[in-house]
User: Fold this.
Amino acid sequence: MILDVIIRINNLNQFIMKVFKFLSFSVIVLLILNACSSVKVSTDYEAKTNFDQYKTFAFYKTGIDKAPISDIDKRRILKAIEVEMAAKGFTKSENPDMLVSIFTKSREKIDIYNNYNPYYYGPYHRQQITKHTEGSLFIDIIDRTSKKLIWQGIGSGALSKSSKLEKREANIQNFVREILEKYPPEK
Assistant:
């Protein structure tokens, strides 16, 4: 009888540890997915600039041509910028107040997560290593007359390697939306 109780307690402990391992792994995966899906945005701008004077924009081809990405992705980014700027009340023009340029950077990023179970040693102490490409999209707003940079937004986050066109386009739209959410800067 005592042996049956000990066996049942041991089986219960094993079950609890399996559940604990599963939940720990699930939480780590959710944290990784959440971190990979978000765009970190930073902005900088010329403090003396009166942003109310800018109503129209055009793309700065010279700057855009230097961006080290495919022409297809450039068109996707420019289309997303055009949509976001129009939603903010700006008009695309042949004689603009401001010019919009883009630049991109990417790098491989490796994250290491410790999966540590304080109750057991050995196979229960593991490191999880993930590798992904982190990209940065720079959106520059330039005063057309002075040709000076007046605002810059930078969005950084994980890039999707999905072969699905919709996923790639959604990722680009998300980057652009998150960055331009900060333009024009609040007074």
